[in-house]
From TrEMBL:
Residues 256-350 form the EIF2B subunit epsilon/gamma LbH domain. Transmembrane segments: none annotated. GO terms for molecular function: intramolecular phosphotransferase activity. PANTHER family: SUGAR-1-PHOSPHATE GUANYL TRANSFERASE. Residues 389-515, 535-634, 640-744 form the Alpha-D-phosphohexomutase alpha/beta/alpha domain. Its main location: cytoplasm. This is Phosphoglucomutase. It comes from the Bacteria. It comes from Geomonas silvestris.
Length: 836
């Protein structure tokens, strides 16, 4: 049997380790990662190998040659261009005329491959995917199988709301040569995204086989360090070239011609490569040292990975770091956990490298330096830039002008040269400062900017619905923390950035693969002074103006010092609405109110509405997307009541169509919609998912559980300003005070809770929830929702916070509380089980 080793990746996520060598050749215990894979295959009797290369193929060929030195026979195949995983294997089709195995060249595993092959053969499978359970399934493809191990569903790199299992695709496959008939010639074709879904669609013999054992995708520098820790702890056995030294109570692996000074203290497992010297007084614990290295007296190394030809001078203290080839470390230098120093770098004495700093190759760090940011390739202040559609960070600390300028370069590079983007901001000084830096980056990539300056986000979205721009960006202060700036990215239709768009910008940002326009061809900046008038015209067209004017309503609106306070009062006055505005003035230095001020603001608003005998009061968040409602009696409507209220108002006004609501919304919405011959479409909670649903022609309203509403007749985007005007119109059409609208609707008890949960356990909890729901009526739109007649409970992992949400609804309070308590206890129990 032959095996194909996939060894063509660029290893971008592992930079700077992979700046000078391909990812499969990165040393693991002083041997290339791929050599461990070769040893694993050889252990199971597979010695006929096909290596698929692409990036720096000569490095791999020069090391392995024909494979004779390693007891295998190697055939090399190098596609001329990036063909995708399956497309690259198609390129090697002529060498694969019998059953074969696919495995990545950058994995660390001790799986029993023979068991997978036997399972494949016994089940007469066309393709078998090796599966395993992991703590964080978000970075991998989740695979669902039935009781016979046939694959029934794929979730490629899901969000937490989609996770219903922690069983993932390991990238190890057993395939029959017949699969080549389904891989097109000369096209980019992927196993996970193209071939396996196609086999599933054709109902081919596609199986998934779960394997016990150790498995790690060494995809980034953190995973690389953790792989070494796992080996040193004995979690996985790999071949180590250096022979074991016979010392009681110590696990030392010492190469040839190694010199150890007297009094050297070594603890745990220590590997020292050939011709290295560790001088007297050095202290080394659980570390791997390469060949031709020198460790001087007083050096303390803990959980470190040291490559070849490294010189560490007296008194240096290095904890859980990676030093690549030809690095010199000055006397008394300190490196914190997670530091990675790439090849040919010189670090001066008394330097201090802070946690997780990455230093790219061939750098000189002067003596006495304190390094807090990555050198050259840009600071990486968190795991990924994007949280959904936005990038956020502390103003002038994490989001600095230089960082944002690079971000503008990356964003501009992702767009066609000569295209136009819209850019706006809120009223804060930080947003103005960072936006100006961002504009310089966009212009440098040859992209033009239409600057609409200080503007509300719904207006920017509305303008993007027209032709002319390929995207938009809005800078604003965070409602949760005034010290944080949020940068919201929108596509050409005014929708939130998709995950693929965000990943494309991230990839350009981290690689610094910026497009630099010729000095005569940078982008230009123009203004759109009439954009508010354009928005106002569409606003009026979306409403029954005569009905609103006839009602002569009086409303109180808290504008939260937002830009909307300069726009909406005049629009409503033109419609004959009397507006009492609160907090309408702009304060650039203070910004808008924070989230913790909202309850107090709503109490004040309630009192003012009652005192002034207004028909309604509205709290508008600073983004002008979210609203809270107070009726004429002073009652503040929580989101679980506001959404049904607006649905009921729409129905009483005679509107007919489909309502888009999240899976967590109360079921009373279905009840009142069905009574009026209308439909409800449940969606994921992600706002982009809701808006994509709202674009459908039959949808007349989309509403979230956070007070955000979209009326597609005006625009399929959340717009708090239009929501206020529409509510006034609907109230007039219903000829009812707001407090009476839900009077005839049967009420239920709606409860929400959340359980703290570390990221590593979320996948396991959803697997257990999935298993617990096997015999129940369950849906998997977003999280796992289980129905018990008219009662239901939803378990949903949070996308960005270390918590799991539990939502329950019951006909009576006792049923709702029982469901909520029962499932919160289950989640707690599952957490404990996953710890054992």
């Amino acid at each position: 049997m032959k095996a194909v080793i996939m060894a063509g990746g660029f290893g971008t996520r592992m930079q700077p380790l992979t700046c000078n060598i391909p990812k499969p050749m990165v040393p693991l215990m002083n041997r290339p990662i791929m050599l461990h894979i070769v040893e694993l295959l050889k252990k199971h009797g597979i010695t006929d190998l096909v290596m698929l290369l692409y990036h720096q193929p000569s490095v791999i060929k020069n090391f392995f040659r024909d494979g004779a030195d390693f007891g295998v026979r190697i055939t090399y195949v190098t596609p001329l261009e990036d063909m995708g995983t399956a497309g690259a294997v198609k390129y090697a089709e002529k060498y694969l005329d019998e059953r074969f195995l696919i495995i990545s060249g950058d994995l660390l595993t001790d799986f029993n491959i023979q068991k997978v092959i036997d399972f494949h053969e016994n089940n007469k499978a066309l393709a078998t995917i090796t599966l395993t359970s992991v703590k964080d399934p978000l970075q991998f493809g989740v695979v669902i199988t039935d009781k016979d191990r046939r694959i029934t569903q794929f979730l490629e790199k899901p969000g937490w709301g989609e996770v219903i299992s922690d069983t993932i695709n390991t990238g190890i496959y057993v395939l029959e040569p017949e699969v080549f008939k389904m891989i097109p010639e000369g096209e980019n074709f992927d196993f996970s995204q193209d071939l396996f879904p196609l086999l599933l669609k054709k109902k081919a013999a596609l199986f998934g086989y779960p394997v016990k054992g150790y498995w790690r995708d060494i995809g980034n520098t953190d995973s690389y360090r953790e792989a070494h820790h796992d080996i040193l702890k004995g979690k996985v056995n790999v071949k180590i070239d250096e022979p074991k030294k016979d010392l009681v109570g110590k696990d030392l692996r010492i190469g040839t011609d190694v010199r150890l000074g007297e009094g050297t203290l070594m603890e745990g497992t220590v590997v020292v490569g050939d011709n290295s010297q560790v001088k007297a007084g050095a202290q080394i614990k659980d570390s791997v040292i390469g060949r031709n290295c020198t460790i001087e007296p007083g050096v303390k190394l803990t959980r470190c990975v040291i490559w070849d030809n490294v010189f560490i001078k007296k008194g240096a203290k290095i904890n859980d770091c990676v030093l690549c080839n030809n690095v010199s470390v000055g006397q008394a230098t300190v490196m914190e956990e997670g530091v990675v120093v790439a090849d040919d770098t010189s670090i001066g004495e008394d330097s201090y490298l802070k946690r997780d700093v990455k230093v790219w190759p061939r750098k000189v760090i002067e003596a006495g330096s304190t390094v807090t940011d990555n050198l050259i390739w840009g600071e990486r202040w968190k795991k990924s830039l994007f949280e959904g559609e936005m990038i956020k960070g502390l103003s002038n600390i994490e989001l600095t002008p230089e960082f944002v300028a690079k971000l503008g370069c990356a964003y501009g590079t992702s767009l066609p040269k000569g295209s136009h983007v819209l850019v706006g901001r809120d009223s804060t000084l930080s947003s103005r400062m960072l936006k100006r830096s961002f504009l310089g980056g966009i212009l440098s990539a040859g992209v033009n900017v239409r600057d609409i300056r200080m503007i509300s986000l719904p207006i920017l979205r509305y303008k993007l619905r027209t032709f002319g721009e390929v995207g938009g960006v809005h800078f604003r202060q965070s409602l949760e923390d005034p010290a944080i700036t949020e940068i919201v990215f929108l596509d050409a239709d005014g929708l939130d950035f998709s995950s693929s768009m965000g990943k494309n910008v991230e990839r350009i940002f981290y690689k610094e693969n910026f497009r630099r326009a010729h000095y005569q061809e940078p982008g230009g900046i123009t203004e759109l002074p009439q954009v508010v008038d354009f928005y106002r015209e569409g606003f009026f067209r979306g409403l029954d103006q005569q009905l609103i004017r006839g009602a002569a309503s009086k409303v109180v609106i808290d504008f939260n010092h937002s830009v909307a306070g300069q726009i909406l009062p005049q629009i409503l006055n033109d419609l004959g609405v009397e507006v009492i505005g609160l907090n309408t003035y702009l304060d650039e230095s203070r910004g808008s109110k924070s989230a913790d001020e909202k309850p107090h603001s709503l109490q004040q608003l309630s009192k003012i509405v009652v005192t002034l005998e207004a028909q309604a009061g509205f709290w508008l968040d600073p983004t002008a997307e979210e609203v809270a409602l107070v009726d004429e009696t002073g009652k503040v409507y929580p989101p679980e009541e506001l959404l049904p209220l607006l649905v009921a108002l729409m129905l009483k006004s005679g509107a007919r169509g489909t309502f888009a609501v999240p899976v967590s919304a109360p079921s009373v919405i279905e009840q009142i919609a069905a009574e009026n011959g209308c439909a409800v479409r449940r969606t994921k909670s992600a706002e982009r998912s809701m808006i994509e649903t709202a674009i459908s022609p039959e949808v007349i309203m989309a509403g979230t559980m956070s007070g955000r509403f979209a009326f597609p007749k005006f625009q399929a985007a959340f717009d708090g300003m239009f929501t206020i005007a529409k509510t006034i119109e609907l109230s007039a059409a219903a000829r009812l005070p707001l407090s009476k609208v839900l009077g005839e609707v049967r009420r239920s008890t709606f409860l929400q809770g959340k359980v703290p949960c570390v990221w590593e356990k979320k996948g396991g909890i959803m697997r257990k929830m999935s298993e617990d729901s096997l015999d129940k009526e369950a849906s998997f739109i977003d999280g796992i929702k289980v129905s018990f007649g008219e009662d239901w409970v939803l378990v949903l992992p949070d996308q960005y916070q270390p918590v799991v949400h539990v939502v329950a609804e019951g006909k009576d309070p006792k049923a709702a509380h029982r469901l909520l308590d029962e499932y919160m206890q289950k989640v707690e129990k599952w957490k404990k089980e996953l710890t054992l």
